[in-house]
Amino acid sequence: MILTVKFIIAMLCTLLVCLWRPLRLDAWVGAAVFRPRCLLVFIASRLGIFGLLFFVLKTTPQSDINWYYGEGRAVLDGLLPLRDFMPVYGPWFSNICAWLLRVADTPVTLMFFALVLEIVSVPLWLRVGDRLFTRGQSDAALLLYTCCPLSLINVPITGQNHIWYAPLLAGAMLLLMRHRSLLCGMMLAFTILAVKMLSMLFVPPFCWASKRRWVFGLGFFGLLIPAYGWYWWQGADMTKLMSFHAQHGSSGNLPFLLGITGLDFSEPGLRSLANLAGLLLLSGLFLTAMWQRRVRTPRQVLIFLPLLTLVTLLISKKSYASYLEMALFPLCLLAAAAPKNAVRTLFTAGCALAACEPSVWFRLLANQELSNLWHGIQHGSPVWAFLLLALLDFALLTFYCLGIAWLWRQSAAELSSPEGARS
Fold it and tell me: Rounded to an integer, what distance in angstroms lies between the CA atom of residue 83 and that of residue 26?
């Protein structure tokens, strides 16, 4: 039933954005009453879907939420993350889950908390948007975000913790624009401790755009090193978490799609080669951006949040489409500022595909690698299921590539802006 709900939401959202111009939505955006009304619709839609599924239909929480619940229960039982059990996420994440479970001992509590964080993040992103874009563009981004299938599906239905990043990254953006380098660095360190290490992606652009980079570094390492140092002092093994993520995999990325040729990137040698290639590509991309002065202003940092996320989704063997939630509102701001509605439509359709692809992978192949087709290990899945998922992933990766190219051009366009020229 969950997959059916996802498909219905994805199709309705894409259709609505396709009809942006015929419905004259631009005429509503920017009016004084638009923002509070759109915020009300946004909150009502999320709470409505959440309440319908888990309180009316009594649906059982699925996906990663059961991992979160298990880690929270482990802390409540007196275990220490990284020493007594291996947390999949940051060490403070397990403690936050434990505190929440003291209120109500059910996975639904953790899902509701994710929903609250998303609601809190939107006004923060709107403040960022109002400073970097026009108010009309920020309002259009709010409408686009309200209609975004990825947000509608992954937050109130699956409650994945990637949305935890949203208010923290929005807060870091506000601190960056106010030249609070120390607090900005501490905020980035907190995202690693309280969610997971994925936000290491965003440390270089925030640091490079800070007016006082050494102060940013002081705030970042001044929180991160003592925090992890305390766990090490308690006897924790700091290598377990890195090892787990290095050996884990997912669908929806280039290594997975290449499995249709018979290459098995779940094999340690190929996986290590793919990880190394991904690291080199990300490093080369950022070094090029530094050399070309593409990451000096807050608006350029805003561009690099979704840009680095999309590159990671494309090349990493472990890259779930829900990672896009981290920088989803910045992507909405940039899409809303585009002059053509085709950009908004493509964005919404791509998000619909990203929201549904992991569930399709599970339903068709039970999370098998595409390379199993060549190795004769199909576990009962028909050949057409492998081919269909390969086609679906090809479309998803095409969306990622188009997004990367478009965002890279956007970062270059910022060089000719007055703010970019002053940097």
Answer: 54
Structure-block tokens of residue 19: 């009809």
Instruction: Supply 123's token pair.
Output: 């006004």
Residue 371 phi/psi, 5-degree rounding, is -65, -20
The sign of the CA dihedral 131, 132, 134, 140 is negative
- Dist CA 332 CA 150 (whole Å): 12
Closest by Cα among 332, 306, 339 to 321: 306
| pLDDT score recorded for residue 51 | 92
Q: Is 81 helix (H, G, I), strand (E, B) or coil?
A: strand
> What is the pLDDT, as a whole number, of residue 376?
66
Residue with tokens 């899902």: 111
> In whole angstroms, how far apart are CA 202 and each of 23, 52, 294, 308, 389?
37, 36, 14, 8, 31
User: What is the Cα–Cα distance from 330 to 198, expressed in whole angstroms?
Assistant: 17
If DSSP codes are grouped into helix, strand and coil, which group holds residue 100?
Answer: helix
Distances (CA, A) of 254 to 251, 260, 420: 9, 11, 33
12 Cβ neighbours under 8 A, 6+ residues apart: none
Residue 1: predicted pLDDT: 62
Whole-number pLDDT of residue 243: 66
Residues forming beta bridges with residue 85, ordered by sequence position: 81
Torsion of CA 108, 114, 120, 126, to 10 degrees: -140
Domain ranges of the chain: 2-25+35-422
Q: Dihedral through CA 311, CA 331, CA 63, CA 2, nearest 10?
A: -130
Residue 81 bridge partners (DSSP): 85
Distance from C-alpha of 46 to C-alpha of 60, rounded to nearest angstrom: 17
DSSP count for the chain of H helices, then E strands: 21, 0
* Whole-number Å distance between alpha carbons of 181 and 302: 16
pTM of structure: 0.92
Q: Measuring CA to CA, which residue among 269, 361, 262 is closest to residue 320? A: 361
- Most distant CA pair in the chain, distance: 62
Local mean pLDDT, 10-residue blocks, the chain (423 residues): 78 82 70 90 93 87 85 92 83 93 93 95 96 93 92 86 94 96 97 92 94 95 94 81 69 90 83 84 90 91 95 88 92 91 90 90 86 74 89 95 94 63 42
